[in-house]
Each structure stands twice: as structure tokens, then as C-alpha cells.
Protein 1
Amino acid sequence: MAKLKLASYWASACGGCDVAILDIHEKILDLAAAADIVFWPIATDFKYSDVQAMPDGHIDVTLFHGAVRNSENAHLAHLLRAKTKVLVAFGSCAHIGGIPGLANLFTREEIFRRVYHETPSTVNPEGVEPQTKLAVPEGEITIPEFYNTVKTLGQVVDVDYFMPGCPPTPKQIWSVVQTIVSGQLPPKGSVIGASEKTQCDECPRPRKEKKITGFKRIATAQPDPETCFLEQGFLCMGPVTRGGCDARCQLSGVPCRGCYGPPAGVLDQGAKAISAIASVIEAKEEVEVQRIIDQIPDPLRSFNRFGIPASLITRKVL
Amino acid sequence: MKRISIDPITRLEGHGKIDIFLADDGSVANCYFQVPELRGFEKFVEGMPIEEVPRVVSRICGV
């Protein structure tokens, strides 16, 4: 059998997904036996011009990490879509927007003002901001356009499979590699490398009845290591997050923040979280309900940590 | 003026490109290093509970 042609690309990302691939450790040799790397900026020296020169459909599988934040990300999304048979939105950013998607709570102007004018470490007396084109004595140099809104990969191009996680766990990556090599791929559009259940179903902390009479913060209260975080009043996204990571945050002593995205059948993870939390608050009077929910730290970013671009509203609109 | 573009710079975390302009005799007339990416962590962590910040800013660079 001919070796697979494999690409891995980062758009608006941190590189953690690429490192997670390397975290399959010695199995990387098995991967190299089954696939040739044809494009992988973190590890190999292929250029955009090399990808451009490939015939359409040349790459068997592209693992695309990162959100679409700027015009370069969008260009590479379209380019790799054209050159790839099986395009995988790999990791939270490509899947649901990820941490870079938190920027959708602000406008481009608000971000530029903070980054290039207001931060204490900025020295910019002339008020310079990035220009997509700049005339220099030798010619013109360019950078990509910074969009107002972060998008998921699936909002920009047709995606074959979605693999959640920030980052996906090496165990899941290896199982997906084996699936790809075997050619036994599930129906197009499937979420792969994850479970059909929720985080709660995987969490080893025993669950009893949830009756929340107040919310706590791990900065100011010590969680009991054996009891469900939510039962103790620590906000946990486990009930509304897809399983598959083996509860790695809960096992590290912190509540789930939702990086695996919504479980099967859930359209909007943040809305589902509000619904789930509302159903376990123990209060009869409206004023008491208000007192309890006022204790939820930073509800907007806590309920929507990784998935604002994939939510129904996608960004701040007012 | 001849231009050599290195795009992207590889085997590092992040995005970068280099444009090198050559004079007629082949010597380097000028060279521009550019970072064509921004995510805006400086803005979107504002007001976040302090205990949440380490799990967010660790995504500045995951390498």
C-alpha cells in the first residue's frame, strides 16, 4: 500500500496540538512508517509555495489546528481544503474557536487599542497600528488582515471530521491515526477521537444529588478532592462537555472548562451550561436565586471558555 | 529589486516571515522580519478571575 501523505498546519493556534501529536512518543516512528509528512511548519521546512504547487487532492489527510483569525488563516484553510482529501478540524480552536475565540467578546478596534496603545509595556508615541500593506524604499511588504470575528474552520471551508480537545489527548490522537491508516473512517462530519458521553460520565469523582446553595472559587476555597466539584459549588463544565479526555482536569484538581465542546445533540454549549446550572440551584425565592447566581465568577467566559465562535450568537453584537 | 521571501519561517512556535531585498550586485539591501499574527490575549483576559488566567494564557504558546 502506498504511504499516506499527511499534513499538519496551525492557523490561529498555540502549537499545543502539534506538540500533542509528538506526545504519542515512540509511536511517531509507526506514524512515519505509515505516512510521509508533506507539510508541517513546526517540524519540517516546507513553504506555502510548496503546498501551492501540489495538485488538488494531493494530500491524503490534513490535521488543521487553530481558528481562522486573519486572512492568512483563511487563505491556508482554502488552500489546504483544495489540496486535501480528508480535512480534519483538529483541536478546540479549529473545532469550536478555542481560546482565541474569546476575542469575539470584543471588536477589532478594542483589541488594537489595548494591544498597541494601552498595555503598560507598550511604547508607541506615534500611535502606529499594523497595516496590511506598507510601502518601504525597496518595495511593498504585507501582513494579513486581522478580521473582526474569529471563525471555526468549519465556518470557512468544508470539513470532513472534527477532533475536539485543547489539546486532543495523545491516546485519542493515536487511535485516530490508526483509524485513518486503516481507512475505516466514520461518516463525513463525525466527531472523532472523543466519546459520545459527557465529561461527567468519565469523571472518577462520585456523584450524588446536586443541590447548589452557593458558588465558590478555587482561589478562595479548598475543594474536597473526592467529591464532585459542582456538588461543592465549584463551577464545572463536565455535565455539558463531550467526554474523551479521561477527565484530565478533574484528576488534576480543577473543574472542567469545556474544551472538548458540546456533547452529541447539544447545539450551544454555553446555553446548555446555563440550563444545567439553573436546574441544580437550590432556592425557592427569586431573591435567593439571584444571590446564588451572582456568585458565579465571570459567567460569560466560564460558560463559553472554548466555544464562543461556534455558539449560536458567535460574538458580541452590542 | 530582487526579493527573497521566506514564508513561513518554520520549526518554531508561531508565525513569521522574512522578506529580503537584494541590490543589483546581489548584496542584501534590506531585510524585513514580520510576525503576521495576533490573538489579543492582552484584551480578552481583562477582568477574568485570577485563578482562571493560568489556564488561558498557557495557550499563548503550547510548545
Note: Strands of chain B lie at 2-6, 17-22, 28-34.
Protein 2
Amino acid sequence: MTASTPRGTLAQRVAQRSGIAVSHVEEVMATHGVAAVATPAARRSMRVHRLRITGSKDESAGGGTFDRSFAFPTGIVMAVGSNFVGKTSVLEIIAWCLRGSPRELQPNVAAWLASVECDAEVNGRALGIRLRLRDGDLITGTVHEAAMVDQLDHAVRTARPLITVSSQDEYAAALQELMLDRLGLEPLHNHDKVNRRTQRHGWPMYFGAIYPPAGGDRILIGETAQGGLAGRLLKVFLDLPRAAVLTRVQAARDAVRGTTRSTGVPGLPELQGRQQTALTTAQSALAALPGAPAVSAAEAAEQVRTVSVLLARAEEQWADLGRTFRLAKGARHTDERALTTERETVVATQLFHGLNPSSCPRCEAPVTEVRRAAEDADHVCAVCTTPLVGDEDDAADLIVERQAALAASTAAETAALAAWEQAEARVNDLTGQLKNAQAQLDAAEAARQVSDRLRLELDVARAEGALAVLAEAGARTDDDLHDDTGGLRADQLLAVLDGLVTELEQEQAAESADLIEAVGDEIAELARAFGMEAVTGVKIRLNSHLAIDKGGVTGQSFGSQSAGGRLRLRIATIIALLRVGARRGVATHPGLVMLDSLRAEEVQDEDAQEILDALIEVAAETPGLQIITTTADQALPDGRLDVDHVLRPATADAPLW
Amino acid sequence: MTVPAGQDAPTTSRMQDAVRLLLLIANAADTLPVGHDAPAGSVAVFRTQVALQKMDFWLRNPDYLAAFLLDRFEETSDPSLREQARTILESDEPEVRRYPMLRYRFGAYEPLDEALSVLAAAGLVFRRREGTPGHTRQHNYYLTDQGQSVARDMITDVPELKYYVDRVRLLVELTGGIGPSALKDMQYEQPEYADAEWHTRIQTIAPRVRERLAAIDAQETP
């Protein structure tokens, strides 16, 4: 599939159509990532091998722990069970693993889960997904890769994971990047006319074609009917040339058109101002995002835990050493006080005893000269005549003793203080480490903003590109229009984008008309095989949905069909994509389909049997197809599917898991 | 004459008590009025045992003195009072120089008799009762000229006792003109003092006063 035609290159054709110089057109094409020649998309494949769930149910569900594994062969796999026994949950848990988040898993059921293991294959590479959950929240998640599915166990035990996350948001963002990359898909853009802004739709949008809405829904494939996305999704899966590129240019065109309309007269300064505002907004939002984390959130969380434990121990030690220090200080105080007391007592004694005794302290009678002479001569007290015993030596010894005690307790206090200060330094160090670890954890948790970063970088690139195109246009006259240098006015830019859209649409129309026709024919044939005998033809419109010719009325819409009809057409569309893709060797749908409740309330018993029979036949003819489906009709698979293709509870009324 | 280095109840020696009392009486006593009936050789009189014990309490409990200094600082905004409190609180003085007293009936109480006998035997201070026999109204303390000169010369003769000389000087400056009962009321303002049970030792308030100083500092430098 190439873009060249006898009418010249894409840029030349757009230049001719819009009357703008080729160099300007090429500039606009470069700005919007439109390559001169389209390259074919890669082959796509996807299938589930194994699912294991563990956890414990609450009392209302009978309580008890569970550890259940399911194997999924290729072809059709049917989970059977009466209502409320977890068969839809099996699809939802697979969606959690492969879509990035469950679509509508009941919160109480999610809360039962402790771990989920899912082995799958995406574009020929085995992926081992391991999720740990608590109270319905994802706690940690890893995705390991191996060449073969049977090597996954080893890889999970020994290899570094492709993805390590510690929150639901992180997981969804990381899985989206992985899946879009592996399957060669681009995010889809569409212009939301009401809010006048461009929306980006990622992997969950595509997953809508793998796990389509239940029977009654009015959307063909995908998750939203907005902006003709279902039709575009169909075209991306049909691998129409540049389907994603066209989507992007259309969104850009719609954005410029919206701007020029709202201002009436295309005012260049205003347009530049808007782009400048968009640029500044995106740049400052980008700058406000935290820097890229050095470690994963799980590693950072582990570091926080480790340092917290060390810090708790260090604080305990610090408190212990603080008590030791205060004890040592108290002992030193006691020794110091004892020494002071002793010294003061000695000097005070010397002072008072050095004075001549003058009177009796009791009666105040004067001490006589005879008594004083006796004290000097006989060493008896001049007041009371008791013999005097000199104890100055004892006092001196005691002072030496007290000095030694004080020296010892002072040394002990100094040592205790040093140890305490050392412990404090360690606490401070660990507090700093904990702060760093916490900051790393915060940064890692902010990694879920990785998709924000991608989007903002895209916004910056777009605004810069638009500003480059618009640059200096205001100063130019009409004579300069065909000059090869310089940028474009808004109306000129719009003309180029309009030309690009038209050319790309024509390119698609020309080169894929028969492909689309083939898919339409295939859908019609399958619809008849599924029991819609009145369908005579189905056409896929280039810019919208299916047009169904049925019972003599042509061009009926998908939404106007009955619930059973919509279910049949939805399955038919997906199978048709696969079969046409297989026949023509082009990449299309990845081949995994999950259908909830083949036997839904809107679908009759015989319809379900009919659809299943048709699916079995189709699966036999379509290599690589894996359809995982559910039914409450215990008898439905009997005689139709092998036992290893049926997931059943142990007894008829028991829960599936 | 030696003192046990007990952990819980550090006590003063009789000689230390005598030094403190002599200095307090010598510095705070009033000149004897003419014609006053006083022991021979007396030159001044210190009135009431209550006042003496209150003053001594502050000498023996630097933490309470620091609190008193901060009270005075808050009343007068004189920063030198705060700085004197800081000098006490930032040192080990509240721990090393603290000799707790028993709480007894009317406040801090420790028998002064032994210390007074040291001073009386040396002829430095004499105690006299005022009032009729059996109905003692109060005790007065009479300082002799000998006592006055020993107290005056103490700072040069016995430099080891400089601490008490300086501290008594500060205390007399602080309490000049405050009557004995007012002194007692001031000490009751500290809950650790008022709440102490009879015959138990009065608790230290050093941690609380240190916090109070920190709060004053924080207020002054926002």
C-alpha cells in the first residue's frame, strides 16, 4: 500500500488542491507527523493462556479462601455457571490484567482478591502479569516477558520485570504504553466539538474491540459512540492506510476550523496568541510534573520501610542513651554537691573555730580566761570542757575522695554525652534518609503521570509546530503567498489541512475500497450464519458506522437493530475483520475476543445455540482466534465443546471459583 | 561535721548553715534604734524567724530564686533580672546548689538552732524572743560588731564562700522593703511549693523555669 499515484506525491496533490506552495504543505505535513508514504502496520496477535486467582471471600459469599487456576486453549472457551458465580468476573479479571483496569468488576468481588496471575501472549511474546491486591486496590503489579509461555515462571522468579508499579493508576498507564507499542497502535484523537478540544483515546478504547459491550449496547465496537470513534476504530483494525494519521489530521483541521469560526475573521495575532497560550500552558504543566523517578515505587516503598525500621531502632537507642546521660549527669551533680558541701564545711569550721569562743550558746555566759587557757593547754572545749579531737586530716582525706568521685562521674557524664550525641547524629542522618526515600516514593508514585507527560509533550510539539507555521504570516502580503519561505495564515493553514484530509480520505477510499467491501460481505455472510437470514448486504461507510441492507430496506443503522441483532453483528464484525485480515495477510484485530453472556436475556435459546455453532465453525477456519465467552446455560456447550474448552464449577450450583 | 553524700536528700552542714545565716543577718539587719534593749555589743537587728527562713529558702533553692527573678523581670522589664535568672538556669546551679527544705506548717522550715549556736558561741549573733514569757511573738537576731566584721571580711578571708556573699547581696537587693509575710506569699505562688505535703521535701521547679525563660526569649525574638 503506497501513497503515490499518477497525480504526483501527496504534498504536490495537497498543494494543487489548496493553492499553497509545496514547501508550506510539507511543513504542515511534518508538523502533523504525516509521512510522504504510508508504511504497513505490524501483525497483531493476542491470547490468554492461564489465569490464577487467590484470596478469601467474605461471609455473605460463604467465606473461605480460594486458589483457582484456569487454562485457556485457543478456539472457543466457555465459562459456565448459574448467575452470580463469577463467570463474568473471570472476564473482568482478565480485562484488569490486559486492559489495565477492570471495566465493571463488582467492588465486593474485587475486595476478595489477594493475587491475580495471568499468562498471556502479545504479538508472539509471552507476558506474565502478577498483581497483588488488598481491599480491591492494586498494591503492586509486575509484567515479565519471555520468549515462550512455559518460560514465564522462570522469568518471573529471576528476571527484571518490564513493568513494576505500586498503584492502579501506574499500572493502567504503564500497560497502555506497553500494549500500544507491542501492537503497533497509536492513540486515537478526535475533536470534541462541544468542549472545543482534542481528546486522546488510548488502549482501553482499543480494548473495546476485544471485550465489546454486552448484548444490549448500541455501540458496535469500542467503548464510546462519540465522534464516530467506533467507525474509526474499525478502520484502524482494518489496517486502512494511515487510519490513525487521518484521524489526527482531521482533529487538527477541526481545531483550526473551530478557531477561525469562533473569531469570524481569521485573525492571525489571535491564533498565534491561542497557540502561544497553549504552548505556555503545556510547558508550565510539563515543568510542574516531578522529575523522572530514579527508582520504582515498589523499590522506593521498600526503602522507606527499611529506613523507617532503622530510624525507629536508632530513636529507641537515642532515648536509652539520653536516659543514661541524665543519670550520669545526676550522679555528677551529687558528687559535685558533696564536694562543695565538704569544702565549705571545712573552711566554715576553720573560720568559726578560729574565733575565740566568747559565750555559752545556751545561756550566753561569757567564756572565762581560765577556760580558754585550758583549751589551749589541755585540748578541752573552752565552752563545755569536752576533750577536742582534731579531725582536719579526716576532712582532707574526704575531700580527696570526693574529688576522685567527681572526676569519675564527670568522665562518665562526658562519655554518656558523646554516645548520646552520636546516636542523635545517627537519628538525624536516618531522618534525612527517610525524607529522601519518601521523596523518591512520592516521585515514583507520580510516575502514573507518565501519560500526562506524553500528552503534554505532544501538546508542546503541536503548539510549537503551529507557531512555526503561523510565524511572520501577519507581515506577509498576498504576493508572498507563493513564496517558498515563511509560514501561513490561519485560513491558509486550514486550506492545507482540508486538502490533506481530502487527499488522505481519497487515498484510503481508493486503496481500501475492495478491502472494506470484502469485510462488509463477510459481515453479511456471518450475520446470516448467525441467524440473520434477512441480511442481504453490509457496507462499512468511510466516515461512519455500518449500513445494513435487511429485508428489502437498505442502509439500516447498527443502532436500529434488535439486541440479538446487535450481538450477532458485533461478533460478525470482529470475526469478519479477522478472516479478511487472514486471507489478505494484513494486520487487523489481534484475535482475542471476550464476549459476556452469549445467552443473555435478550438472546433466545436457539439464537445462542446458533451463534455458538457458527462461532465453532468460524474458529475452526480462523487460526489464532481465541474467543472467551460465558453462559448461564449449563447445557449449551454439551456436545459442542471439548471438556478442556469449558470452565465449569465442581457441581452445578457451586461457584465457578 | 562531715556530710553524707545522699542521693535523695542533700542536706547542708551546720557550718554551712551558720555561714548563710550570718551573711543574711549581717546584710539585711536594720541599725539598732537608740535605747533598744539589746544584748551587749549588738549593732543591728534582723527581725523575725519567718523572714530569715524565707530568705534562706531562696539561698538553698536557686530554681525558686530564678523564678522570683523572672517575676520581677516581668513586673519591671529590667533585662538585668532576666539575665541573672539566665545565669542561674543555664548553669548546673539549680541541681548542684539545691538543698531542699521540709515543708512545715507555715512554709519552708529547717531548725536554725544548731547553726545559731555556732554563731552565738563565737559571739557573732544572739537571738532574743519578743513578747511575754510563754507567748513568743517573734524572734529577733542581733548582730554584734564582731559578727559584722567577720561577715564583712569573709569575702577576702575565705574566698571559697564567695558564692554565698554574692548571692546574699543579690537577694537583699531583690527583697529590700518586702515584709516577712509578703515574702512567704511569694514562695507560695509556685505550685510545687504550695502543694508539697507537710514533712515532704519541696520539689524542684528547674525544668519549668527553664521552659519559662525559653518562652520569654521566643516572645522577644519572633
Note: The mean pLDDT of chain A is 79.
